[in-house]
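Problem: given the chain below (591 residues), write out its structure.
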Amino acid sequence: AKKKQKRMAAQVFLLFESAPGYAIFKEIESEEAASNEASVQSSINNFKEFHRMVKLHSFHAFPNGETALENINDVSEGICNKLLTKCLKASLGKTKTKFVLGVAEEKLGSAIQEANPTVTCQKNGHILELLRGIRLHFDKFVKDAPDMKKDLLQTSRRALGHSYSRSKVKFNVNRVDNMVIQSIALSDQLDKDLNTFSMRVREWYAWHFPELYTIVSEPQMYAKVVKFVGNKSTLSDDSLDELEEIVNDRTKAESIVKAARISMGTDIAPIDLVNISKFADRVIDLIDFKNNLQAYMKNKMHTISPNLTALVGEQVGARLISKAGSLTNLAKYPASTVQILGAEKALFRALKTKSATPKYGLLFQSGFVQKATLKNKGRISRYLANKCSIACRVDCFGELGTDKYGKRMKEQVEERLNFYTTGKIPTKNLDAMKQVLADLKKDAKKPATPKKTKKEPVEEEEEATPAKKKPATPKKAQPTEDDMEVEAPPKRTPKKKAPVVEEEEEEEEAPTPKKTPKKEEEEEAPPPKRTPKKKAAVVEEEEEEAPPPTPKKKAAVVEEEEEEAPPPKRTPKKKAAAVVEEEEEEEELPS
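Solution.
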């Protein structure tokens, strides 16, 4: 019976991922070890006893450091890559008996089963204990492995540890929300420090000039006045203009000078004034740095999360991101979590004492919650948390860097506030989002339209000039041959009609080539310059004056010119001048 059980029991192999490569171990005393896990735990510390339970089946070293880093990253993410599949086939492909592969991660085991259907993966307490012993004695197991070189284990562990850590913490351009988290934390710390430092400057300088703080209460302005005044006894009316530049108020500067003359403060040593002045300089520099930091954070928030910034502002949006840890984490939170984010202590205290839970956390700093009445603060906080959740998801997972969603959702929150006071029904969220999408489509079409409107009309006008003249061509007005003789010439320009007249003269008279054809033709053939807009009376007079060429030949010549001659190059602006010249020549010819 025991022999049958041994035959029916599946052989157990163990997969161990290490820095130098993949190692596959084989369990020897599977039945006895599985029956008593305490014996396994006791034998782990002793290599001789543990070596009787497990032995090295095969070892596959990584060819280089890059391959090692790639494989370890895949293993940590639960991916079975090609190299691991190849190693499993080489080690377990020839195994004829039934076997089970023990793994440390269930996600990796499921990936191995998908890539290799013949392999069955398993994870339990017994396998984890065996892998713990293998990790403890791994250097002794692989010491005599064929692919294992001297000192390879230590060097590969050190190199892979550095490269793996570097790949996990390397700078990612898309993860700039870390800069916002650090900026808002530094801004909060600067607020606390500046309150302490400004109070220290006031208490220190009050021994000499206690009345100054009642006149100038703003910390930065107070520090600047302290630096300028120094010893109050030196303050006079001559320094009013400079004081006015600092405090931006003439009456306040005059009151400072008057208070310095009747001050109850004690005299102070010059060395003390030097230290107070240096400390005031430090406070001024810190305030300037804080202002620059807020401008930097504002620009970053508009870049990282434009919709959340448009909805609740830079400060509240940055605090929400900082509290969640990242923009991705905040986008994954439900609206109920966003609503009470920052009030965790009050929430757990309420759950412990079974009292009322908090209705808002960091969102209480938003202007919408501040505007709402005490009765509606919780309702508007819940509604605002819903909009913040939507805005974060659009910023995190959307590809359009626009703030129109945030602006539209801000209008929705304002409409909700009005609804609580006036009862006016606000816009539905579906209609609001459809309107934003329509606006985005319009904006996407706008950049392409100006280019077409500038270029295409010019080309169309240039191409349309010959097309407009084509309706007046003799093809449309050719009922008879006599009409062709009269109406065909207007399309031809004087320069291009000269060769036609020359051909006619050569057929009739054969003139000498030395004569200038253009001038003679302009005098002899006035009809070509006539426009098609002339009246019928003018056409009848021209028929009497025109030379009598044979109609058949002229019609054929006109048809040839229509096919060969290119369209006229005259622009529409020059048309009026050409018509005037034609009329003048017509008046001269009859004489």
